[in-house]
Amino acid sequence: MKRWAGPIGIVLALLILFYPLDYYISKPGGAYELSPIVKVENKDAGDTGELRLLTIALSKATPATYIYQSLKDPDHLMKANQIRREDEDDEAYEVRQLKLMSNSQLNAIQVAYDKTDEPYELINNGLFIYSVVKGSPADGTLRPGDRIQAIDGNADVSEQALQEFILTKEVGDTIQLSIDRDGEKRDVEITLGSIPEIPDRPAVGISYQQDQEITTEREVSFQSDEIGGPSAGLMFTLEIMNQLLEGDLTKGYSIAGTGEILADGRVGRIGGVDLKVVAAAEEGVDFMFAPDDEISEDLLATNPNLLSNYQAAIETKEELGLDIEIVPVKTIDDALDYLEKLPPKS
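^ thats the sequence. predicted structure below, dont judge the formating
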């Protein structure tokens, strides 16, 4: 027995230190300057301030880090189903996060170009598959990240078109989808199944969203491959506008912010705002934009302690005694109005 005690102890120690649990730990991330990340062709030069996006750091817990986090900061220890969707594995989660980032970039360009009267064109690329339900007709045939570009030879592909097409079929019918997978075109056949809630209704077993791209005369590029999610949208929009317009939106200030940007210019709620306040304060920025989202009465009825992003940011600032000004924004115009009224930084 003594001969085996050493190796067993080493194995146990390694498991405690490195075995991944189905839990995640979130921590403050970084406050990254946007000018090296976002590039607009023929951009305006000479800006003295800076715009920054905020991130959180997310890692899988091990037995050791789980115990430590439980004792130190249990609020930022989350079960996997608080991060990932049902039936979403790590790969599908990563695909969804990167697609949300891509969507935020497209919306940011659209809003920035609308605000600056620059021309652009939106192009429909079919349907982007976020996830595939395990055991569904699509399982093993379609993957997260695939793009559906034709349905039974019809290239007029939209969310509504697919839904209406499926409803003309019956469980057991076969359909043909033309897909793009990592740039490779292929045709696949799916035999329609059903969903437990509506057994007579035919289903493919995927979640999806309209996939678009935007073309502009002055090209916009992003170097954000390792950042996922939609929360950089507001700051992307401001950075694009700052490079398109003559003058300096920042007026010499260091400005951080977070919030999803929607196509109509509204700023949407995001996760982890408390951690992003800490990241901004640690970077020493002058102020931070935070979504001033409205919480419905129905949502408050089920989550009575839920705060808006702005309220949560203020609460974090006061609890930790952080030296940072937090500015509430509901729309891109709120941020622009605030910047316009700022005196230049001396």
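The domain at 123-212 is CATH 2.30.42.10 (Pdz3 Domain).
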